Amino acid sequence: MKLPGHDAIARQADEHLVPHRVKLPRKVVERPIRQVVKRLVMALAVLVATALIVYADREGYHDNADGSVDLLDAFYYATVTLSTTGYGDITPVSDGARLANIFVITPLRVLFLIILVGTTLEVLTERTREEWRLNRWRSVLRDHTVVVGFGTKGRSAIQTVCATGLKKEQVVVVDPSSKAIDAATAEGYAGVVGDATRSEVLKRAEVHKARQIIIAPQRDDTAVLVTLTARQLNRGAKIVAAVREEENAPLLRQSGADAVITSSGAAGRLLGLSVLSPAAGMVMEDLIQQGSGLDLVERPVVRGEAGKTPRETDDLVVSVVRGHRVLGYDDPSVGTLQLTDRLITIVRATPGNQVTPDTRPLPHG
C-alpha cells in the first residue's frame, strides 16, 4: 500500500483548501467587470454630451461667479445636474437653454441615473436570483450522480454515463480547481469548488441524496479519503472509484467502494491485448466507449426471455447478473433465465439501445 502519512495528507488538504461554493450552469454572458466598464463608458458619454449641449448654448446660461460659462463650467454644470446635486451657481436664463433642460438634459439625467443605479440594482438582483436558483436546485435534486474530479477520468466517466441517457442536470461535479468547475459548468453540469475529502463540500453537492458517486481524483490517497467520507454520508449510493496502483484497490473496497477501477492496470491490459491482436484491442476500446459502434448494455430479462437459456436470446449475452453474483453466459449454474435476472449484452449502439444502468450497489469484494 503506497499511501503517504498523515502529515502528507494534511499538507495536501491545506494545498487544496479553497472556499467551497456551488456553481450552476448558465448562459454565456459578459464578465461583470466588462459590463461595469461598458456602463461607465456609457455614463461618461452621456456626461460629455450634456456638457457639449450646455457649452453650445453657453450664452443662455449665467454663472454667479463671473457671469460667463466656459467649457469647464459646462462640464461642471453637467456633472452637478446629472447627479441631481444642483448647486444653482450656474443656471439657464434664456428660453432656449430652459427648453434644452426640459427636453434634452432632463432625459439625459434620467438615463445617467438608470445607467449607474441600474448597475447596482442588477448586481443585487443577480445575487438574489442566484440564491433562488441554488435553493431551488437543492430542493429538486434527487437520485443524481456526483463526480469527484473533472480530469480526464472524471470527464470520460461523465460522458459515458450521459451516453446511456442520464441528463446533464443530474450530474454534480466536485473539484478543488475553479478552472475545472468553470469547464464543467460550461458543458452544462453543476459544480462545487472545494476539497471533496471534507464532508461540508460533499454536502453542498447533496451527496447524501445521490444515487451514484464516481470518484476519480488525481491521487490514490485522496480517493480513499473521499470514499470514506462519501460512504459515511450516503450508505445506499453506488460508489465507483478509480486508483492508479493495483495494490490500493483493496483499501478502496474496504473504504466503501462498490467497484474499483485500476486505471494503470486497465490501460496496461488494453495495451497488451492490442499487441497480441490490434483488432481485438479496437473492439475492446469500442465496447467501453458508449454511444458508438458496439456497446455493453445491462438490461433486465423480459418476459419473452424467461425460461430460455442465454444463447436463445436475440442479443449477444456476455454475463448474467443473478442476485449478487455475475455468472458467465456458459456457466452451468445459470440454467434458464429468470425474470429477476439482468443480462449484460453486446448490442449495436443506437438511440433505442440506451438503457439506464442498474442502480443497485454491487457486492463488496
Report what the structure shows.
- This protein has 365 residues and is α/β, with parallel strands linked by helices.
- Helix content is 45%, strand content 17%.
- The protein contains eleven helices and 13 strands.
- The protein has helices at residues 6-15, 32-56, 71-82, 95-140, 152-163, 178-186, 199-204, 220-233, 249-255, 263-276, 278-287; strands at residues 21-23, 61-63, 90-92, 145-148, 171-175, 190-193, 212-215, 238-243, 259-262, 294-300, 316-322, 325-328, 342-348.
- β11 (316-322) and β12 (325-328) form a beta hairpin.
- α2 crosses α3 and α2 runs antiparallel to α4 (95-140).
- The longest helix is centred in the N-terminal third of the chain and has 46 residues, at 95-140.
- The protein is elongated and about 110 Å long.
- The model is unreliable at 1-18 and 352-365 (pLDDT under 50).
Features:
disordered C terminus, 13 strands, alpha/beta, 365 residues, 11 helices, elongated, seven-stranded mixed sheet
The radius of gyration is 32 Å
Distance between the termini: 17 Å
Number of strand elements:
13
Structural class category: alpha/beta
Mean pLDDT: 81
- Count helical runs: 11
Strands of the largest sheet, in order across it?
1-6-5-4-7-8-9
Contiguous low-pLDDT stretches (5 residues minimum) are: 1-18, 352-365
Oligomerization state of this entry? Answer: single chain
Q: Beta-sheet strand percentage?
A: 15-25%
